[in-house]
Each structure stands twice: as C-alpha cells, then as structure tokens.
Amino acid sequence: MSATKEKLSSVTIRFCGDSGDGMQLTGNQFTTTSALFGNDIATYPNFPAEIRAPLGTLAGVSGFQVRFSSNDIFTAGDELDALVAMNPAAMKTNLEDLKQNGILIINEDSFTASNLSKAGFNPEEDILEPYRSKYRVYEMPITKMTLEALKDAPIQSKLKERSKNMFALGVMYFLYNRSLEPTIKWLEGKFGNKPDILAANIKVIKAGYNFGDTCEMIHSTYEVAKADIPPGTYRNITGNEALSIGFVAASKLSNKSLFLGSYPITPATEILQALAKYKHFGVKTFQAEDEIAGIGSAIGASFAGQLALTTTSGPGIALKSEFMNLAMITELPLVIVDVMRGGPSTGLPTKTEQTDLLQVLYGRNGESPIPVLAAKSPSDCFDTAIEACRIAFEYMTPVVILSETQIAIGSEPWLLPNIDDLKKIKTQSHTDPDTFQPYSRNEDLARPWAIPGTPGCEHTLGGLEKSNITGKVNLSAEAHEEMTRIRAQKVANIAKHLPATEIYGKTKGDLLLLGWGSTYGSNKSAVEELLARGYKVAQAHIKHINPLPNDLESILRNYKHVMLPELNSGQLNMILRAKFLIDIKAVNQINTKPFNQSDLVRIAEEIIEGKR
Amino acid sequence: MAIITNTDPSTLTKKDFVAEGDVKWCPGCGDYSILSSVQTVLPTLGIPKEKFAFISGIGCSSRFPYYMDTYGFHTIHGRALTVASGVKISNPDLSVWVVTGDGDGLSIGGNHTMHAIRRNMDLKILLFNNRIYGLTKGQYSPTSEQGKVTKTSLMGSIDRPLNPVSFAIASGATFVARTAAHNPKHLQETLRAAAAHKGTAFVEILQNCNIFNDGTFAKYLNKDTKEVENLFLEDGKPLLFDKDSKGIVLESGSHPKLTIEANDGTTNKFITHDPKAEDTTMAYLIGRLGIDEPSMPTVMGVIRSVNHVSYDAAVAQQEAAAIEKKGEGKLESLLFNSSTWTVSDEVKTKK
Question: In terms of CATH architecture, what is B9-216+309-313?
C-alpha cells in the first residue's frame, strides 16, 4: 500500500538525541533541502552546555527545530508537528512541545532498560503506552536497520552506528516528500575523498527513505508547497555568520581594515571563528588572553586607525566595562558585540535571553552614554553590523550590538543585497596638522580621528577628564560638566539622522505590539493574526535602543494600549516608562524560550478587552 | 598658530619630544631622569617622530605619555600592553613603547605582561620598579621586600616579592635588561639596545620613590657600596665587579649555583656573558643575583637578547600568504558563496 499525500501550509519538526548523535547536522540538512525546494524556513537549535554529557542522559540532549512553510514565517514555530527522538532522554525532554496527535518517531533500539533508567523511566513499564493514544507513535528499529543496511560496508562498526542519523533523516524526507538530492550532493562534497564513508551514508539515507515507504507505519505523507518569497539570490544564514559577514562588508565599505580582539565565549565564539577565515580580506583576528585584552587590543587597533571590533556575551561585558568607558571618554570608534545568553553569572551559557540591556546601557562607572543597537533576526545581523560600524565611525564612539543566542545560532533564508546598494561609510579621518585639535567638534559633535603615523597630529588620549577642543587633561568642575553634556548630546544627535520608525498594521488603534531583538518574529506573527481577526493593532520594533528614535513617543501615543513582550523582567519597559510616562503593559518570560505566538495573541486580546 | 611638522628623523632633537606644559611628578622623583633619557635617545634612532606611540596604564609611571610630544595613550590600570598589542598588530610600522610600573605591570597587569612577552610582540616595555604603590600613597607592591612596613602592612609585608627579570625570562622574553634611573648613561645605552631589538624588549628600570620608598635602591648609588653591589654586563665579557677584583663562577653539581671568587688574573674561570644563548638557565641565574640573593651583586645591562620572529611580523606574513593563495577578498565572494539558491520571478508567477 502506498501512503496518501496531504497538503499543509506550515510544518514544525524537531530532531533530538544525544549531543553526539549528529542532530544539529541532520537538522541543518533538512533546512537546506527545504530552502532549496523553495519554502520559507526558520530554525532553532537547542543544545546542552556540556559538549558530551554522559550518553543517554537528560543533560546530554541536543535538539534542532526547523519550521518550513509555504507562507512568510517569522518564528521557528510554537509547537511541533513531528518529533524525532533518538533515545528515551531526548523523548522525555522534548515531548511537551509536541502537539496533540503529532508524529513521534522513536529509535526503539535505544529504548533499553539502561537508557530508560538514565532518563528516569521505569524500565519494567511500557513507557510508550500512554503516548500511543495521544500521539501518532512510530517505533522504528533505526539502529538495527542502519547496521543491516551497512552489514557489508567496509567501514568501522562504530562509524556504521554513527550514521543512524542519516536513516532518521531519510524517514523524514519520505514523510515530507523531500528530495534526497541536496543531501547526497552535500555528502559528496564532504566525503569526496572517503568513498567508503560516502557510499555508506548514501546507502543509509536511502534505506531510511525506503523504510518509510514500505514499513506500513506511515499511512499519509505531507507536502508543503513553495513559499511566495521575493525573487533574488538567497542563502541560509545564522546570526553569528551574518554579523561576521556584515563586519567584513563594513570594512570594505569604509576602506578600513577590520581588527577583532576577542576571547572565546558561548554563544559568541563563532564570530571569532568565522572572521579568522577572512585574512585575505585584510581581517586581523587576535585571540587574546582574556576578555579584557580582547577589547584592549581592539581599542589599540582603533587608536591605530582600524575598524575595531570585540565580541562576547554578558559575562564578558562585565569584564570589558572599564575599557568600554575608556573608548567612550577617548571617543574612539569601536563595535562591541554582546550575544546575550542566560544569566546571571555563568548562568545558562547555551540558552537565550534579553537580560543584558540594562548592563550595556548603564553598567559602567560615571555617566557613560554608549549607542546600543539590537538585531531582530539572523539575517538582520548583517544590516545591524554595518549600521553599528557607520555610527561608530561617523560619531567617533563605541557602539554595542545586542544579539541573542536564539538569533546567533538560529537561521533563516537571507535575500542577498545588491552590492551596489550598500552605502559607503564615512570616517572622521584627519591628516591636516594646521587644523588639528584632538577634541574639536563637527556639527554632530564628533571629534577628528588622527592616527599614529600622521605627521604633526601627535596627541595623547587618556581616561582622565579633559578640556573640549584641546583634549588636555582638565579636572575642573566646569570642564567635567561641559564634557559630560557634550558626550551625552553627541549620542543623542544620532537620532536626528535615523529613518522614521516602521509601523506594520494600523497607524492608530487599540494596541501597539512593541519589541526589540528576537521578539520580532513572534510579535509579527501575533500582529498578523490579530489583524486578520479584525483588531486595530500594529507592530513597531526598535533597532536603535540608544538613542531611541525621535518619533517613538508620538507613535506610542497613537494607540490605546502598548504591549511590550521581553525575554527579561521588563528592562526596556522600565526605560520607556521613565522616559515617556506611558503605562506600557509588560509581558515577561525568563524561561529561556522564545514567546509563543498564541500566548501573545491571547494576552493582546485580554489587554484590548481591558482584562489586563 | 602653524604647527611645524618635522618628518625628517635626522633633524630631530630632544626638544622635539618634550611636550608643552608642566611635568607633575614629585620633585626629586626618579621618573624625571627616565623621561629625560627617553627624550635623549628617541631622536637618535632614525625613526620619524610621528611613528612613535607611547602607551601606559595607571600609576605614577603611567603619566609618562602626557609629557612626550608623540602619539600617546594613557589607558586603564594594568592593561597598557593589550592596547599596545592592538596598535602594533594594526600598524607594524610604528615604534610602540609601553610605560608601566611594578604595580601596573606585575600586579593588576601581570597576566598581560606574561602574554605580550610570550607572543614576542614587538613592544618596548619600560617597567619602572620603585617597589611601592606611589599614586595611591604608599602601599606594598609585588616587588616590595618581605617584611616591609607600609600603610597596608603595618607588621611587615607577608608577600614574597617577584623579581621582574625572572618573570620576564620565565615568560619567554627574547630581550631582558635591567638598568636604573640613577644611572642615565647606562639607562640610555640600554634603551638604545631595546629599541634595536625586534620583538618584546623588557627593561626593568630601578627607580627611587623619594616620598614613599626613599632610598630603596641606595646601595647601588652609595660610594661605599656601589662597586660591590653593581655588576655591569657586557656581551662576551666575564662577569666581573668591584673594579674587576671579583667575579662570578658557576659551582658544578646537581643544583647549579653562582658564587663569588677573587680575580687572580685567570679570568677564564669566570662566567662569560652570552646574552644570545637560546638556553635561559644562565640568564635566569644571573637575573636572581642581588635581588633574590642579597649577598651577591645585582647585574645591570642586557641579560638576554635573542632573535625570534615577532608576533606582528607573523600576522603580516599569514595575511600575505592568505592573499597569495586566495586572492584579495571581494564583496561578491563574501556574500555569494556556494550555498546560495535563486528564486526567479517565474517561480513567483507560477504560484
């Protein structure tokens, strides 16, 4: 018998298993195949802080979620249509996200007494029994079938078992009517010089596909049509990749070499790794001895006339804060990336949060205005990187970019920009000794940038308070008050040149769903749904958090209610309330997960109906 | 006011390196002598003035860049070497000098000192050692002698002191020297040797703090003691001191030990100074004399000077090799890699 085909508009699936089971790779392959097919996609990997926690344990579970759709999508999905669990621990930690009657595929070979105990199940019981009525459970002998397919393959038995993720991928390709070709092509590229391993992987993925077809468990398969997405050239990109490429692009656009001083830290390390590949673009990456040396070397590079960058996460910001202040008071261009993770302290290194906003805005001694930008999605990281470099150079200031774990490691298709549309970035370079004063000001209050090696412009920068114009050390009350005001006004001036804030939905109405960072996707989806149901609502999303856009207050006052979901206890809300005296409704979640669209819609309705 | 731009290094004089304004160290401070010596040496190096950068941290010594008419950066406590490393990697053409002290460079900044040295970053590190915290008004430092009574060690310091020269050698320094603010001639010679070295040049400069630690190095200056307390090193010469009446010999055995013997004319029994030796054992042993072994004279001069490729030079080599291999990077290849796909208008209209 052959399975029937059912058409769906959007599907969310998750692969999960031990962190050594290759689930990230499997998820990435499904993503690429779906992207090449023409779906819109969004992904959300989830992995443990331990690299290889003990096999079969709850702590060692790694997952990769991908949503693919025939519509425009903005999130990786609220609940799962299908879950592939390679062992009992993976099933246990992920099952709550599977929707009623969803598909649960398990590798029954791993449901041994030992693995069941490690996952906290009673090995004496039929633990699947309660789930068989709630979900469509497909119990497949994935390990056994993989080994059977490879019984004559001339490779080590350890490698044979390891290719069981390809079997699971093959089953999923069958279930969702996907072509095996893109993955086979990828395998050919990866194992081109290891023909035995290549042949084994191809054999297993085909075996999985054929098993799905012939096992008589799967009675219907699903099709998700191509999405109606704008024409152009796309590539799938994570936030960390997009930031890296954005900085290299900014280096080209400003004609300044890129220097990254950094120290490895989850989840920002990939930026250092990515940029280390771009030496032929003149990129210098310096893996420093610690977070402090990372930013210190970047400040040195800035002083020497480079596009200077340092990358980190919240704990690293804590260590860098004294140097951030030095860059601020010496008015040197510098970009500081904070890929936020769960805090406080070491916290939850691999989980997502928006909890560093107040830290980057205010976590320094004295009054220390530093521009802050937030990226809203993986591909938006490219634009955010360029925008941060532009502000740093035009205003001679350090700039913070806030990204989030979810954005950094999540991916989506990126419509590649037309290179000719990318604007050149101006700098405040100065070489004329006759007109040089280290702290003279242009109309936006930016000071000139004369770099060592420029004859006649010798000057000394430092962290002591100084006189305007001459930059000479001056600890007087008058100089301090003047310089404090100038530094604040300079940052405020950035807002004068920002484009109008985009509004999606009604320009006036009952509720504005406001946000920053990764909540863009869930807010957008919620507003779409609310608009479709006839509500007078809109979405506004803030990229420039310091300075805030000048039109923001009037926009907020165009709606009866403003709702602000944040993955923290209300940090931006506190600032906006203080600044505008508007009763913004906070929606907060600090459970390391993105917001669900359905929760936001429900809360918005409650606010509009006056129940909140 | 037109600014005179002097880019021809052969016409530079000491005055070209003296900044406008007052120098604000305490009268009698050893730092004045160091400042004057640096300003004397720089115009003799054949380097255009605009190519010097002086980077410092925090402390009395770290005010140094304000008094130099060069590019300068007074950074934060202990971190000057990180900033200087970024400057040097970015522009290897610059002559980058770091001014630090025993607190700034060995206490709060000890980590960075170790790492800059092990990388052989081409920086000239001048560590002013006065064995006290001066700018915070007199607390013991990492080089203060054990038992020293200060405002924070009323019953005597318990900390065991660090020997800056030992630290530098153990960190893999390619150039290590010791000199003193009270001996400008020797100081200037040593600065010239440091400037000529390609790689990290670590120079410990003994310097008196006449307010909080006056006389800490008096034995090297006093008429009665200076001959027995100083041993001036010369490349290829035996280790002799006290008007060549005594010398240093190596006692054999499983624990190498240096001892003093009278000079009876058979000078070949004395250790010959070999700063270019790759092996650091002898450099370490002689660096300890006087400081860790008070019965012996303290060696002054270039203790070690070997040639290894500097970090910044290696960075430039790798960059050149990458461009040679892959061609100069272009925006097109940055954005459009092998994993792109194209959505055509046709697909869109079909839907």
Answer: 3-Layer(aba) Sandwich (3.40)
